[in-house]
Amino acid sequence: MDFSIFTILLQDGITNGAIYALVALALVLVFAVNRIIFLPQGEFVAFGALTLVSLQAGTIPGTVWLLAVMAILTTLLDLSAALRLGRKRLIARLLLIKLISPLLLVALVCWAAPRQWPLLVQALLSIMTVTAMGPMIYRLAYQRLANAKVLVLLIVSVGVHFVMTGLGLLFFGPEGARVAPYVESSLTLGTLELSGQDMVVLAVSLLLMLVLAWFFNHTLYGKALQATAKNRVGARLMGISTTMAGKLSLCFAAFIGALSGILIVPTTAIYYDSGFLIGLKGFVGAILGGLMSYPLAAIGAVLVGLLEAFSSFWASEYKEVIVFTAIIPILLWRSIASGGTPHGGDE
Q1: Which of 4, 13, 118, 189 is 20 to 30 A distant from 311 in Cα terms?
Q2: What is the pTM of this model?
Q3: CB 257 within 8 A of CB 21
Q4: What's CA 153's distance to the chain center, in Å?
Q5: Each residue's pLDDT tens digit, 173-201
Q6: In this structure, is residue 103 part of a structural domain?
Q7: Local structure of residue 268 (DSSP, 8 states)
Q8: Is 196 inside a domain boundary?
């Protein structure tokens, strides 16, 4: 391996690691707030990317029909709850927020699809469509199980993952797809050539991480999420709605996933099930932070990207095995660091 190959692999590893870092941050957020190991996180990535592909092709993406169905179901559930509790004055607000707003978005996407709007507008519509699904998935799959054990929530996540994967196959078919690079130019620094597309990925990823850090530290909703993550009972006693926190965390997860898909679809062909592997690699990074530390999760995800890049050079056939095997020493280290034993209990 000469220096030029090393720099190419390093660049690829950092770029992929930035995407895995975003996925890892979303996984940590959802787990910290809701105790949910959110396996469907990768499906948000695939849905975001393939929704953009559909809009680029001038066709209506199937995700808008899923959004419409979910909006109707969540509205019916919330209306039923409001009527049962005698809160009839909330009905108009529920209809506006839960039903009319999503359906207006669906109508906008359907109207815009054949008109081939600029790429930036199509990307925004794709992100909005997928982001709106996050709180609805929480309402339909998790809200009534908010106090269940982690294992129960994990089983629900497995079910949500399979449903979303199957719907992805139905909406987009088995073929992979990609779009043209957003930036064609490149930057040359001596012997190092930086792709413009890679710089876009790194810049947007870093900017989003900074925005999230500001949000959690300087906004009321961000502090409410932190309080819920630290102590759900204490948060409720202080007047913080843990249901709101759960929906907001899934909204952020969907937004991060959709944005990640938009960023990688110019460089990688995305299939209906591509999100699963991306989500698992983000999960490996999140495990390094114990599913609780955002900085460690981001660092771990970048390391996963680097490990994947260099493994693809030395042993391309086994790169996935090498990446996922890396979780074993991480789990052993965390077990020992927490005072546990590798076999998982006392004899």
Answers
A1: 189
A2: 0.91
A3: no
A4: 17
A5: 999 888 888 887 777 766 666 777 888 88
A6: no
A7: S
A8: yes
